[in-house]
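// run 5 | inverse folding | seed 20
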């Protein structure tokens, strides 16, 4: 065979099964007096915006056929992304990686007007799966920029949601990453100033940032309604309830999921003796269980429940079979699917799912 006809084949090494220490070994290492239990946070996992975005890609694959391109990760979860890839979704960083005329889905985190314009220039067909709560923040940024306000956007620079919001009015917006930056930021007109925020931040840290800003700029205005989404607040409130009683908190979620990372921080701030984030149950280190009587478990807003169940199964193997659900709120939020998907479903006579979120009407 000539070199010109040879196609290199790359074979990945098979993964080596994790050899765990036995439950008996862990129990003997640091004995625990009394029983072991799990405090399972509720709400946890998928929020309505995530559910809506994932369904949008699934329905696009079903009705348009593969491939369906998605700009950035549709939601920040490795399992969700890999599952959609297996079904024919192709994830790209920017629209210029999408073939002209192809179908591209904008992720739940939203995009700037420049991204929309780029897609139009390339003749791309688009489905906007931006979470409606993120869209609300975009609209606030546009509104206050038109009224010539200076906008302090509290959020993590480089995060896709922040990039999208900033892109709505870059000449009017400054990003404030943390409370420390609130102490040094310089504004042009402190009497016409408003703050907005990324939807997935720590509620406590955001309020501390606002407190510091207001101490310097007393006329700082609040957004018309809370920008931090209901799901982020509820998941943080649930872990605040659990943390003081927990020897260990396990948060299921990906490393680029802002709300998942915040849950680890909140658990530690509110009294958990240890807290770790994992994508999958096989990442849990059984040595974490040494001397532990109570484990708190939760998951970020982009995490499917199957991943939590895998963690609970592992915990049961190590003696944590008593699971007590701690509920701080009931969620029944529903969002309509993106208008492009709704139109396609109507055309196809598909009435199987028109909403994203929790509640009987979503099924």
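// decoded
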């Amino acid at each position: 065979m000539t070199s010109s006809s040879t196609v290199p084949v790359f074979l990945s090494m098979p993964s080596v099964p994790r050899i765990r220490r036995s439950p008996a070994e862990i129990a003997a290492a640091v004995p625990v007096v009394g029983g072991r239990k799990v405090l399972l946070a509720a709400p946890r996992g998928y929020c309505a915006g995530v559910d809506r975005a994932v369904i949008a890609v699934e329905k696009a694959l079903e009705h348009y056929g593969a491939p369906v391109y998605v700009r950035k990760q549709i939601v920040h979860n490795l399992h969700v992304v890999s599952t959609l890839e297996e079904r024919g979704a192709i994830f790209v960083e920017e629209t210029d990686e999408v073939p002209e005329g192809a179908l591209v889905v904008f992720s739940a985190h939203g995009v700037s007007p420049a991204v929309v314009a780029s897609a139009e220039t390339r003749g791309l067909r688009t489905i906007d799966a931006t979470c409606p709560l993120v869209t609300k923040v975009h609209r606030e940024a546009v509104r206050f920029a038109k009224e010539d306000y200076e906008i302090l956007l509290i959020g993590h620079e480089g995060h896709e949601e922040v990039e999208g919001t900033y892109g709505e009015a870059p000449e009017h917006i400054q990003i404030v990453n943390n409370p420390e930056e609130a102490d040094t930021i310089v504004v042009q007109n402190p009497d016409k100033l408003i703050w907005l925020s990324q939807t997935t931040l720590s509620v406590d840290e955001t309020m501390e940032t606002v407190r510091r800003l207001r101490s310097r700029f007393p006329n700082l205005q609040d957004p018309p309604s809370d920008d931090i989404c209901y799901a982020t607040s509820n998941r943080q409130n649930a872990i605040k309830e659990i943390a003081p009683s927990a020897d260990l908190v396990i948060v299921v979620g990906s490393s680029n999921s802002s709300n998942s990372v915040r849950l680890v921080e909140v658990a530690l701030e509110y009294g958990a003796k240890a807290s770790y984030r994992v994508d999958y149950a096989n990442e849990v280190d059984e040595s974490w269980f040494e001397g532990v009587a109570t484990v708190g478990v939760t998951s970020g807003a982009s995490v499917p429940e199957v991943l939590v169940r895998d963690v609970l199964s592992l915990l049961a193997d190590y003696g944590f079979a008593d699971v007590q659900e701690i509920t701080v709120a009931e969620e029944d939020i529903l969002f309509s699917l993106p208008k492009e998907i709704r139109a396609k479903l109507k055309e196809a006579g598909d009435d199987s799912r028109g909403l994203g979120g929790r509640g009987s009407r979503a099924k």
